[in-house]
Structure to design on (184 residues):
């Protein structure tokens, strides 16, 4: 199905649907969580789409930044999104708050590369929360935006913490997460 965009595999018809679901050459969906954006396009068009359709997303330059999630006490499911640009690539930083069990909310923080799975293997990220005598750190390889935030959460490829932990590190309802991107 994606031969016109670069896929050169020839598969038996029974293997084709499974491959098409994960094919690197399939169109990219809008990676912005928490929106009902139906945009699809090439990898090269993702950043242009984000800058024009999702203007509220802030982009910071550099390998070391602070991702500030404001008003973490907002009720219900909430997504905070920011972009980080370094090493000639763009990374989407996501903090997602959702209810896991009756009244029990969890936070999920992860980094996605605006790029392919193969490109994502070249990077590592570190998320750090700092507080009075406390530090919480998570290190991992970013996922590709082809996989998305839900796959990162489903595979536990993210920093997970509960509301009590969020409050331990928050300052007046705002949570600062130090984000460091490095090359492998």
């Amino acid at each position: 199905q994606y031969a016109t965009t670069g896929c050169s595999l020839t598969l038996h018809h029974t293997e084709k649907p499974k491959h098409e679901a994960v094919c690197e050459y399939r169109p990219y969906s809008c990676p912005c969580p928490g929106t009902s954006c139906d945009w699809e396009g090439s990898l090269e068009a993702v950043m242009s789409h984000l800058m024009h359709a999702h203007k509220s997303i802030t982009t910071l330059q550099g390998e070391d930044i602070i991702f500030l999630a404001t008003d973490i006490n907002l009720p219900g499911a909430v997504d905070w999104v920011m972009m980080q640009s370094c090493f000639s690539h763009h990374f989407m930083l996501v903090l997602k708050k959702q209810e896991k069990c009756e009244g029990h909310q969890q936070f999920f923080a992860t980094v996605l590369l605006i790029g392919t799975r193969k490109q994502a293997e070249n990077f590592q990220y570190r998320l750090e929360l700092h507080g009075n005598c406390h530090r919480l750190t998570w290190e991992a390889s970013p996922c590709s935006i082809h996989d998305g935030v839900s796959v990162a959460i489903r595979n536990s490829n993210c920093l997970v913490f509960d509301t009590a932990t969020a409050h331990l590190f928050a300052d007046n309802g705002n949570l600062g997460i130090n984000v460091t991107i490095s090359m492998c």
